[in-house]
Structure prediction request, 144 residues.
Amino acid sequence: MSWWAVFSMIRREAFEAVGLLDEQLFMYGDDVDWCRRAWNAGWEVVFYPGAQAIHDRGKTTAPYPVRFAVAQQRSVIHYWKKHHSFLGVLGIRGIILFHHLLRYTVASLSILARSGRTAQKEVAKQVSGACLRELIFGRIPTTA
Prediction:
C-alpha cells in the first residue's frame, strides 16, 4: 500500500550551515529536529502540501514492531531532552508512560476475554510492554 510521505528539499547553504541529521534520532523525528535547528539558525522552513512522494509504508518496520516502537520512543525522548526543559521531558515521559500502561492493560484484558483480533492485541501488548520496560529500566536490547 502506498501512502504520502514527507520529504525535504534543502538549499546547499542551509545544509552547510545546519549540518547533518542527528544520528541519535533513528528514523523518527530527525526531520523535525533538523527543521528546528534550521529555523533557529535563521533559515525559513516552509511546508508545501502540494508536493507528493510515494512511500511504501511499513515495508521496513512491519516485520519488527517492537524494535521500531522502542526506536521511535527513544527518538521522541531524545528530541525532548535536546530541545525542552526538564519538566517538558518529565511531561512527555509521563504521557508516554500513561499511553503504554493503558494500551498494555486493554490488550491484556482483550486477550483474556478472547475478543477478536487476538494476534493484533498480542503485538500491541508486546510493543507496550517493551516501551514500558525501556521507560522504567532504561535502554533495553530489542530483538523482535
